[in-house]
Amino acid sequence: MADPKTNEVQLKVERLRREGEERAAEKLAKASGLPYLDLTKTPTSLEAVKLIPEEKAKAAQVVAVELRVRKVALAALDPKSKATQETIKELEGRKYQVRVFVASLSGIKQAWHFYQFVPKKAEDITGKVGIEKERFEELTKRWATLDDFKKQMEAGLLVEAKTSDILQMILAEALAVKASDVHFESEEGQVRVRFRMDGILHDALSNFSKKHYEKLISRIKLLAAMKINVRGTPQDGRFTISLTNKDIEIRVSIIPSEFGETIVMRILDPDSIGVKLPELGLREDDLALVYHQLEKPNGLVLNTGPTGSGKTTTLYAFLRQISNPEKKIITIEDPIEYKVPGIEQTQVDPSANYTFVKGLRAIVRQDPDVILVGEIRDLETAEIAMQAALTGHVVFSTLHTNDAVGAVPRLVDLGVKTATIGPALSLVIAQRLVRRLCSDCKKEVEVTKEMEGKIKKFIEKLPSRVDRRTFEDFKLYQPGSCNTCNHFGYTGRVGIFEFLETGSKFEEVILKEASEVALKRLAKEQEMVSMQQDGVLKALQGVTTLDEVKNVTGPIEWPQ
C-alpha cells in the first residue's frame, strides 16, 4: 500500500515542476514577442482541436484551442520550429487567420486529451471495415417499411449476407426510418435487434443468430476503436459514416450481460438537431415570449425535463437564433452531440480533470457574450452560472425537474441562495415530447357530447394571452396506418412546453417561500400555460392525440 506521505511529496514535486514549466513558457513568450497561454485555465474547443490531425499536432508539439469564424488560436511549445511554421502555413492555406501563443508542453499534452473525443471515420480505421458511401445510400432506399426490412432479412438475407453487409443494412434501415438508437440484445438462444423510433422501441430483427452476432460484435468494436478481445467490462466508442451531404456520428456502448454482450448504437444525425426556433412547435404567444427573452443582454434561461425530452434541441435552436459574428458563444457539454456552426463548443473531460465547474470558470475568463452549460448538477456550477448571468452574460442550461416551478426548489436543494436565484433567473422552461400524427393516414374521430363540453370549457378557461379563436373549430384525430409511418400512425415528435417568467413578483415570492406550492400560485396568477394544456391544444389542432398527451403528462385535468 502506498505511503500517503510519499504521495503528498510526489504531488508537491509534480506541482513545482509544472509551475517551473509554465514560468519557462511565459519567459519564452516574452522573448519571442508572443502572448503566453496557460492551458490549465483555458477552455479547449473540440472543433478547433479537429483542425489539425493528431499525429501532426503531436509531431509539431502544437494544438489549436479556439476557433471563431475563420480565426484560430494555436498554442505551440516552440513557435519558431519548422514543424510549427509548417502547421501555421497549412492553416493559412485553408484561409484561417492564425494567432500563435506560447504554451508549456504539459499544457499542450493536456489539450491533446481532446483528440479522444474526435470521432474516427470508418475509412480512417481500416479498409476492411470501411462503409461504402454509395452502397450505404442505396440501402437506405431499399425497403419501403421497417416490416419489409424485417421480412426480407429474416427470409434469408441474414444467412446469405456477409457480416459487413449485415451491419450496413441494419444501419441504413435505422437511418431510413429515422431511428435514434439501435439495440442489439443478446438473449439465451438468439439476438434481438430493436430500433428506437419517436421514443418507442420497435422490433427490427428477432431471430439473429449468435454465430453472426459474434462476428458483428468484432466488426463494431473495430469500427469504434474498442478492444476486440475485452468482453467482461463495459466499453464506449464511436465512428462516423460519411454520406454525400452530411456526416453521421455513431456512438457505441457495449456492456456484458447474462447471455453475451449487449450493444446500443446512438445515431447522431445532424438533421435531427438542426431545428430552427419557429420549427419547435411553439404557439404564437409562446414564440413571442421566447423572442422577447432572447433579446435580453443577460440572465439565466433554464430548460427542465427528463433525459430525452428535447432540451438540447430547444437550447440549440435558441443559440442559432441569437448567433451572429458580433457575439462570442461558448458551450461546455457532456458530451458534444452535435456541431453548431459559428459556436465554440467544448467538452468535459474527467480524465484531464476538466469538469463543468473548471470549464465554466475558464469560459467566463474568455470574454463570452453567451454561455451554454450542458447541465447544472451541483452547487458550484449553479453559483458560477448565476454569477455569470448577473454580470452581463446570457447563460443557458438544463436541470432535471418535472416542471418549470420545480426548478427553484431544486436550486435551493443544491444550496443556491434565493436572493441570488431571483435576480439571475430570466426564464424557466419545462418540456416533453409527444408523437406527431402521420398526416397521410390520421383519421378524424367523432367527438361525444360529453367530450365536446369538456373541450369547450377548457378553451374558455385558457389564459387570455392564448388566441382562443384558433381552437374553437377543433377536430380530434386518431392514428391510422400507412407506409409513410411504418404503419405506426405517428411520424416524428413535437414538443409540448410551459414557460415560467420571472420578474419582481417572482423575486418577492421566492424570498418569502421558495416552495412549489407558492410558485404554482404565482404561475396561475401569471396565466402560465402548462405542458398538459399545450399538449391538449396540439391535439385540438390535429398534431397529436389526447392519448399521447395523457401518456406523457398524466390524466388530463379538465376544468370543472
> Averaging pLDDT over every residue, what do you get?
90
**Strand portion:** 15-25%
Largest sheet: 7 strands, mixed
SS content category? alpha/beta
How many helices? The count is: 23
Keywords:
alpha/beta, 18 strands
Verbal overview:
With 560 residues, the protein is an alpha/beta fold. Helix content is 41%, strand content 22%. The protein contains 23 helices and 18 strands. The chain has a seven-stranded mixed beta sheet with strand order 12-11-13-14-10-15-18, sandwiched between helices. A six-stranded antiparallel beta sheet has the order 6-5-4-9-8-7, covered by helices on one side. A hairpin with a 2-residue loop joins strand 1 (62-68) and strand 2 (71-76). Helix 9 packs across helix 10 (210-223) and helix 15 (379-390) packs across helix 17 (418-424). The chain is globular, with a radius of gyration of 27 Å.
Concise description?
The chain is an alpha/beta fold and 560 residues long.
Layout: helices, strands, pairs:
Blueprint lengths: L3 H29 L13 H4 L4 H7 L1 E7 L2 E6 L5 H12 L3 E6 L2 H8 L9 H4 L7 H7 L6 H15 L2 H14 L4 E6 L4 E7 L2 E9 L1 H14 L11 E8 L4 E11 L2 E9 L1 H4 L10 H11 L4 E6 L6 H12 L6 E5 L10 E4 L8 H9 L5 E4 L5 H12 L3 E6 L7 H8 L3 H7 E13 L5 E3 L3 H12 L8 H4 L3 E3 L11 E12 L2 H9 L3 H10 L5 H10 L5 H8 L7
